[in-house]
Amino acid sequence: MTALDPRSATVQPITPALLEASFARILGTCPGEAERSFLAQAHEDYAADETPELDGEDLAALLAASWRAAGDYPAGSPPLITVGPLSGADGQALDYDLVRIVQNDAPFLVDSVMGVLAEAGVSVRALFHPVVALDGRRLSVIILVIDPVPQERRDALGEGLAQSLSDVHAAVEDHEAMAALMRQAVQRLETTPPAVDPAILEENIAFLKWLKSDHFVFLGARDYDYPRGADGDYEAEAPLSQSGAGLGILADPERTVLRRASEPAVLTRQMRRQLDFSDPVTVAKANARSRVHRRAYMDYVGVKRYGPDGKATGETRFVGLFTSEAYDRLATETPLIRRKVANVLSRADKAPGSHNEKRLKNILDNYPRDELFQISEDELLSIALGILHLYDRPRIRLFTRQDPFDRFVSVLCFIPREKFDASVRERIGQIVARAWGGRVSAWYPQLSDAPLVRVHFIIGVTPGEHPVPDAAQLEQDVAEAGRSWIERFEAALRRAEVADVEVGPLSARWARAFGAAYRDRYDADEAAVDLREMDRLNATGQVGAGEPVAVRAFRNLDDSPLQFRFKLYRRGPSVPLSDVLPIMTDMGLKTLEEYGYSIRPMGEEEIHVHEFLMEDPRGEDLVFADVKGPFERAFAAVWSGLTESDGFNRLVIELGMEWREAALIRTLARYRQQTGLDPSQAVQEEALREYPEVSRALLALFKAKFEPNGAAVETRQETVDALAAQIAALLQAVKSLDHDRALRRIAALIGAIKRTSYFQQDADGLPKRHISIKIASSELEDLPLPKPYREIFVWAPHVEGVHLRFGPVARGGLRWSDRRDDFRTEVLGLVKAQQVKNAVIVPVGSKGGFYPKQLPRTTDREAIQGEAIRAYRTFLSGLLDITDNIAADGAVTRPAHVVAWEQDDPYLVVAADKGTATFSDIANGVSASYGFWLGDAFASGGSIGYDHKAMGITARGAWEAVKRHFRELGKDIQTEPFTMVGVGDMSGDVFGNGALLSKATKLVAAFDHRDIFIDPDPNPEVSWAERKRLFDLPRSSWQDYDKGLISAGGGVFSRSAKSIQLTPEIKAALDIAEDELDPVSLIRAILKAPAELLYLGGIGTYVKSAAETDAQVGDKGTDPLRINADELRVKVVGEGANLGFTQAGRIVFGQNGGRINTDAIDNSAGVDTSDHEVNIKILVGSAVTNGVLPAEERTPLLASMTEEVGRKVLAHNYDQTLALTLQQAEGAGALDAQQRFMQSLSARGKLDRKVEGLPSDARIKEMMASGIPLARPELAVLTAYAKLELSEEIVASRAPEDPFFEQILVRYFPDALARFEPQMKSHRLRREIIATVLSNEVVNMCGPTFPDRLRGSAECDTTALIIAFEAARRIFRLDEAWDAVSNLDLKISAEAQTALYREIAVVLRRQTFWLARRAKNGASVQALIDRYRPVADALQAEGAPVLSRFEQGRLDERVKTFADHGAPEDLTRRIGVMRPLVAAADIGDIAQETGWPVAAMARLYHQVGAAFDFDRLRAAAGSIPSVDHFDRLAVRRLIEDLMTEQATLTRAVARASDASVGISEDAAEGAVDAWIGSKLAVVEGVRASVDEIEQSGAGWTFAKLTIANATIRDLASAAGKG
Hints:
The protein contains 63 helices and 38 strands. With 1618 residues, the chain is α+β, with helices and mostly antiparallel strands.
């Protein structure tokens, strides 16, 4: 049967007839008698079930081939051995191998062959051994079918068979010669007897004759002559000489008998002793195993021959095997040993017929026969009596006999039957072999019904080179090994100082838990130690409660100085090596060996114990005692997830650090890596390892600063300074620049750290699993810009994160980052936008990011989310661990075990961001667990807060920007249809809400990460309704859009498609020519589409500047989609999402005429809402704490204010975008002031223009020359910095203390909270709220450069500036005018609105200047209002009639300009008259001094202006081109002089007149003329000069103005003195 034949499983026997027929057919001839005999013998050996796959044809083919081989076998040849694959009748290979041997028939062939196969481990499936007579020869044909083996084993098998059969034939061929040699040896003893006891000689001769009588299989023989000296004595150490050729297997001179070296042997000391004292016949064991008959050590029989002097002259050596009959004979019937046995019985002197005599006889009868031949009588007597004694007191005993030739030791071991098992036998054998320095060559057990089991061990040794053990100690060791495991275990427990009452229960539970393999390797004392370790394990083996693993490091005596071992214990399945080896590698250790054992305590889950042999290649100086404990704790910490496994753990071995100290170093190094400027982690690890003194000093510095020992910071400073100096000195010895930089920067980092949680403990009193450090970033010189005020870095094995904030009061989102190696870079980039965004709210910008390091490798979203939440909680805990708290009494409290090298710092709020949109409640839960004073104000937007998506607040805020863009383009997108393309889908907050904010929206195309939506010609109403349906549908996608509502040619396309066919309608809508595009190209076409609006509501950076590379953008996910800004064809961009454009891309788009702000401006409503929520919750919390508000009313109250909060937030979006419009309207003329402001910020380290994308001085110079203004995105950044800077300055000033600003505080909060005004006054952020509101209003209305310019020109501080600004707004009701203009949206043109706003801003700036000069003296807002508002109201009521004719003419021009733009005349006149009322404060002061009515004084004032040409001169001054700041400053000072002079002259005229002159213009003019009187010539001269300059057409210059003013200054000076 072939391997491929599908045969039945049923075995069909082969009959002789069928076999013969098949055989004949194969041979092609009819079988003769010989062939039939051959087949008959083979069939007798056949068993159908042995080889079921071998059918009759196959067997016949096998036998036919073997018959041919026999026929071809040459006479006189060595055995013909074939080993190879077996083929079937059809020639195909079967699943067997064939061994076939053809040779002359001889004894022992099959036994010898089977011995070779057994020794080779080959499975024999069938054996056929026909013996046939061919050509007068009797041939043996051995056919074996075996399981298949590889070719190399086939080759080895063939060699082994050849050697064995060679021995067989050699022994058989020389059998007669060896028998003759034996007869000759007997004859020599008989004819030349030695001088021995005749009885002994007779017994020796009888033994030799007995051997010849089929009791010995002769395999080889050899004759030797003993070397004799001249004196007749034996020569020491002389070689023996062979007297003739050897016989049988000893014909080969290389074959040895008693030695391992080649013969002839040397007459050794032991042999000489034998010659002198032994009997004529020596029986021993040979060194070699027999390859004939039995695979056993051969027996050696040496027969001496003697000379006439009675001394032995030589020896005949026979080797062979005692036959089974020889072993079966009783000892009393066997020559040579019968006499020995009889003598022993006699000498033992036991009473005849007694029990002891019978037992002794039994002992001798059953004594190992080989031993009886070799043992001396004295030895036998001693041992036999010893054994007899054991039967009365059974125990473990050894009886040892050394081989006379010192080749082996024979050991009889007796073991009580109940204690015997294989493990005991192996254990004792190992102990004995080890004691003799040898090996167990063989062992023979004897089991009977006797109480003792005998094991006969043969221990092979090297002659003369082995130890001789202490017999008593060996007996003790063996006895201990033979004790039961339970006995040894219980004894070990007692030695381990386990109380006696506990030994029994522990033994019952644990003794049988240790398996045989464990007991073979370890003793009971080791088990007791292991038990102590295993008792620490938790119930599951899983990381969680308790210890999942235990670790014990130790050393064995034979371990090298570089090595140590450790045991790892865990309940449950065995520990995979792949889990352990990386931990060892990270520690710098090599794993050399591993052993694993299963321990099964009764009634419990199994425990696995693993032993590892480790080597530390760098461990020359390793002091094991120093690293043992740290290593154990470090490994357990890594395994339990308390720390990470990386090269920093090498410090545990290298420096003996604890794992948490290594974790601290890791934390410091990881932060340094996150900065992006430090060497790699590998270099850091190497530096710390190579310079252990520096590493230890760094740890010492950290502990000196932060270890909570009660010492104040001031008292620590000296130690800290000393350690810093020590580190600096040690660093001088660091050779590598990279190593120096790594170590030096870690040292600098420790110096900049202000707080840490490193020394904090959890509820169980253990160190916390995470480490956080708080860093004063500005103290690190090498940090990339911008540098935060503070940052907190958190490390844990499963998460790392960083929180950057730019002021003590800061807020911003925490994002789930996917950038493991540079999430700080990501967060730093985002926090810049957050800074701009936060300009509108109380806190400055902050941002955090965390990277979960152990996210499961699965598609299970719940599992991934669960791990992310765990990481998020840890990150938040790390932040709160080192943040101050505020008690109910308002006192700031420090976290436990935290040493702070800074002032109180209790303000920490967070918000949602990418990946954490639903995490606010989680964050507030963490806050509550810490009892943090902000409660659920810690993270806005939770379940008790304002839901941004439900409010649509972020999109609504962005839509304010979009509406302004279009409004200023002359379009009302709420009523007029407009086309839009976008990024996002309707399930998203920003895009979904945004796409529903106007029913006039025509959404032509949009895409998200899944699909592309295209509606070439949408119906606004229909598409709006369908988008609303999708928005309301949970987890909707563009695929859910009703395709029947999409206009012709449109559709929804999956981004996974290879290509998309484009319809003519799509091509027209996107203005592209291609008929087919892949999804990426189609998205790029959408971004370039000629729509009116591009609305960004999804994640990703899609537009950059052509000058930027994708790598610089830093958003690999959108690299294929990104386009350049100059490829955009939309008119307006709305950035509802963050980072949709690079700043450079925005600037390019803006400079090319596109309408765009920044993401920070457009989507600030979200953060604004969150900030309102936080501040409201702080207020409401205070009300609840003080009992003013019942706690149960808190949540409904918060919810009731949702809409009002939204309105307040959207007002900020409206104002901010308006502010940019007003700044943009100033054009390139504002560049000088903007440049100075940027220079000022840069000089103070507040601004990095390159980082913020702002132009350099050189670029501004070019822009001035070309008349290119800053683009809106640039203005947005400048505006944010101005607000942040001013807010910070206001907080630090006295302005918030002005009682008038309490109104701002009340107005900031919703109306429903007005009843909590007392609590508002004690609000934790009262000053910050006031400062934020005021800074926004100042910058929004007057521009970003105004605060600096005003303080410089008015020479006042921030307090005076803010009081003057607020007073000016109120006095002249400019806030009312501003609101009135805002109410004209879409009623008049945007240009008209802008012009009116700018007019108000001019008046506000001027009035703030004049009032600041008064506020410098400490005047309050209310005092200024009380004094000057009546004046302003009176002048506004009088209107133009109080002005000079010149001013009235200018007023009419302004009003006409506004009216031409469509502005209402009454409003424009009210606004227009404000500019000439700039001197209202002066008029009011003079009126109050003189007691005149304000209107009367105003007429007189303006007539003085007309008479002395002050009006014309001021107008002229305002028209002078100002090249730079100093020109403007000079003109400003000149105008101040003119104003001062006009007031002085007005005061002089008033003193010379009465109030009645102010009743009319004529009267006032007459009074002025009267006062001039004699001075008329001088005045006429001034007028003439002014006329001349104006008429010259050359224009005014500063020099001309100065000359014109000189005469007036003299008049005013004289009048003032008068």
